[in-house]
Structure formats: C-alpha cells, structure tokens
C-alpha cells in the first residue's frame, strides 16, 4: 500500500493520528486524575509509571506535532488549488486557539492553544524550500536538546528533585464538588500558566511542525520504499535503547520522576516516535487496515476534547482527585478508547466528519462554503 494512498483523505495520516491520540490519552490520564509522586505509589503503579516513561511519555505529542506540520502543507496546497487566501489558514488557527482557551477552563494540559500560536509562525515558511524547513527544524531541535541537556546537568550537579506538583487546590474543589470554582481556578491560575509555558516549548513545537512539513513535501513526491521503512524502524529502535536504559536505571533510584528522568524520557521520544511512525507505515504496507485507529484519527479533535470532558465528569462524580491508582486510570483509558472507536465508526457512517471538526470547518470557510471546500 502506498503511504500516500488517497480516497478523500490520506489513510496513513489518519491512522497515525488515531494511534497518537491513543498514546496522548495514556499520557494525559495521570494529569486528569491528579498527579502523584512516584515514590508514593504502590508497586503496580510504579511499574506502570516506568512503562509510561519508557513507551508513551513524550513520544506521542512528537507524532502529533509532526502530523500538524504535514497537515499544514496539505491545507496550504488546497488553498492554492482553489485560489484562496492564506487568511483562511489564519482563521483556522484562530478558531483552534479559541478551542484551546475553552479547553483550558477544564484542564491545564491543553496543547491546542500552543499549536495555534506556534502555527502562525508556519506562515513564514509558506514559500521556503523543503530543505530550508528541515534545516531550521533540526536547528531548533538541537537548541531544545541543549536546553534540556543543561537542565539535566544542573540536576546532576546540585541534586535532582521531583518535577511532579500535586495540586491541593483542585483536590479540595473536586472533593467538595465546587465546579464553578473549579472553572474559575483554571481561568485565573491555570490558563495564564499554560500560555506562559507555551513560550517555553514554542521552539520545540515549531521545529516538529517544520520537520512534518518537510516530510510531507518530500514524500508526496516519492513515498519511502518498504526497505527504507524497515531500516528506519530498526535504526531508530536501536538508537532508543541507551535512553531507555537510563530511564530504567533512574527509576530504581530515589528520584524516579525528576529532571534527570525527564531528560531521557524526552530524548527517547525523539527516536521512538520515528520507530512508531515507521512501524505503523509497515503495518499498512502489509495490508492491515487499522480501521480503529483510522476512525479515531478522522475525529481526533472531537475525541481529544471528549476525553477531557469524560475524565472531568469522572472526578466530580467520584469526588476523587489525586488518589485514584494509576492502574485504575489505565483501565479507564482502555475502556474509553474502545467506546470512542465504536462511536467514531458509527458517527462517521452518518456524517462526513466529527462534530467539532465540522464546527472548525464551518468557522474556517463559512457555513455555506464549507460544504464545497
């Protein structure tokens, strides 16, 4: 199967987006339910936390960011074909930013506003050559590497410390079922902090956007051969082993969730994301449909936002925040993803796209024009 095989969509991108969405939910779940220090977890949860750091943490926002950059190229190409202005893309990002701000009223970890703000800078690269995008993307990745590397060296020199910060305020608000105060707290405290954090991670996100844009331009012309994918899969997996070993070693020490651990978690995210992307491509090439991932990917925005809503309802129904074991949260993720696959299959049999995607499209093009674009 050609990676760029199309009906009205690119199958590989939908499947990879759906796969990444699954990983994102596993990553976000501990934050939804309330962060806890690893040292205070039971044995089962400590093992799960290690597996999360090895296989999930930082791997999937990397994939999502690269996919966003690839989608940018597709969107701009469609605007050119239809003779439309780049202001359409500006409107699209502006609506995404509003979605992100609303999302931040419920959960501090939203990435949509970061994508929107970083996405505006992609307009500077509309007319640049693919190699220019790649060069700047790699340069920004190197900058991020040295930034995290310096933080790691600082932790080594002065003593590591946990980066997990349990939020007692939210725990009290959830326990007392004060939903309005919960929203107010996010609006006045968490939202400004999230916007501030965007400035910190902006270079890394933009770098991944640019790499994704380069890959889309490069492989639209000539998709990679299966032999190349196998080679990329193997090399990226092998390159992941040193960082994964360090994560295991650190988890056996006194500070398993500190700055040193995060550096290697981030580093392994660079290589394992490549492994996952190549692995999904090889599965599709072998004839696997991966339709569950595909429907999740076609409704990625709807499913992403609904995940937050479901877990927000869960914590207020139970009144528990920061006390639910990680293994129970993991089971909840598996159940929710299964439900979302079934729902997405059903909904897409009735509609062209997900409900939030339809609102986004209508806002981007206008209610009438969106039916024909």
TrEMBL record:
<feature type="transmembrane region" description="Helical">
    <location>
        <begin position="112"/>
        <end position="127"/>
    </location>
</feature>
<keyword id="KW-0472">Membrane</keyword>
<dbReference type="InterPro" id="IPR007349">
    <property type="entry name" value="DUF418"/>
</dbReference>
<feature type="transmembrane region" description="Helical">
    <location>
        <begin position="228"/>
        <end position="248"/>
    </location>
</feature>
<protein>
    <submittedName>
        <fullName>DUF418 domain-containing protein</fullName>
    </submittedName>
</protein>
<feature type="domain" description="DUF418">
    <location>
        <begin position="227"/>
        <end position="366"/>
    </location>
</feature>
<feature type="transmembrane region" description="Helical">
    <location>
        <begin position="134"/>
        <end position="155"/>
    </location>
</feature>
<dbReference type="InterPro" id="IPR052529">
    <property type="entry name" value="Bact_Transport_Assoc"/>
</dbReference>
<feature type="transmembrane region" description="Helical">
    <location>
        <begin position="12"/>
        <end position="34"/>
    </location>
</feature>
<dbReference type="Pfam" id="PF04235">
    <property type="entry name" value="DUF418"/>
</dbReference>
<feature type="transmembrane region" description="Helical">
    <location>
        <begin position="304"/>
        <end position="324"/>
    </location>
</feature>
<feature type="transmembrane region" description="Helical">
    <location>
        <begin position="194"/>
        <end position="216"/>
    </location>
</feature>
<feature type="transmembrane region" description="Helical">
    <location>
        <begin position="330"/>
        <end position="348"/>
    </location>
</feature>
<feature type="transmembrane region" description="Helical">
    <location>
        <begin position="88"/>
        <end position="106"/>
    </location>
</feature>
<feature type="transmembrane region" description="Helical">
    <location>
        <begin position="260"/>
        <end position="284"/>
    </location>
</feature>
<keyword id="KW-1133">Transmembrane helix</keyword>
<keyword id="KW-0812">Transmembrane</keyword>
<feature type="transmembrane region" description="Helical">
    <location>
        <begin position="54"/>
        <end position="76"/>
    </location>
</feature>
């Amino acid at each position: 199967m050609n990676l760029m095989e199309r009906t009205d969509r690119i199958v590989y991108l939908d499947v990879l987006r759906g796969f990444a969405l699954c990983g994102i939910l596993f990553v976000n779940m501990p934050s939804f339910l309330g962060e806890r220090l690893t040292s205070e977890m039971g044995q089962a949860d400590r093992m799960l936390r290690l597996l999360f750091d090895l296989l999930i943490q930082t791997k999937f926002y990397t994939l999502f960011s690269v996919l966003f950059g690839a989608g940018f190229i597709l969107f701009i190409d469609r605007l050119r074909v239809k003779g439309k202005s780049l202001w359409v893309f500006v409107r699209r990002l502006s609506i995404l930013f509003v979605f992100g701000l609303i999302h931040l009223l419920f959960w501090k970890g939203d990435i949509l506003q970061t994508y929107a703000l970083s996405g505006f800078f992609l307009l500077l690269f509309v007319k640049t050559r693919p190699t220019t995008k790649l060069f700047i993307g790699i340069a920004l990745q190197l900058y991020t590497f040295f930034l995290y590397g310096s933080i790691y060296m600082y932790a080594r020199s002065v003593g590591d410390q946990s980066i997990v910060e349990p939020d007692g305020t939210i725990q009290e608000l959830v326990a007392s079922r004060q939903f309005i105060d919960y929203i107010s707290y996010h609006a006045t405290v968490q939202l400004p902090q999230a916007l501030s954090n965007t400035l910190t991670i902006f270079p890394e996100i933009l770098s991944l956007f640019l790499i994704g844009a380069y890959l889309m331009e490069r492989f639209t012309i000539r998709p990679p051969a299966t032999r190349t994918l196998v080679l990329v899969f193997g090399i990226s997996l092998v390159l992941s082993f040193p960082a994964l070993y360090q994560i295991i070693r650190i988890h056996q020490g006194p500070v398993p969730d500190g700055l040193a651990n995060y550096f290697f978690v981030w580093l392994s995210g660079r290589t394992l994301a490549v492994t996952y992307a190549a692995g999904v491509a090889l599965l599709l090439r072998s004839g696997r449909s991966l339709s569950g991932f595909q429907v999740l990917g076609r409704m990625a925005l709807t499913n992403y936002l609904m995940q937050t809503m479901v877990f927000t309802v869960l914590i207020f129904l139970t009144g528990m925040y920061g006390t639910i074991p990680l293994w129970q949260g993991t089971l909840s993720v598996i159940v929710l993803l299964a439900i979302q696959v079934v729902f997405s299959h059903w909904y897409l049999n009735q509609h062209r796209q997900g409900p939030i995607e339809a609102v986004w499209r209508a806002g981007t093009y206008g209610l009438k024009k969106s039916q024909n674009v």
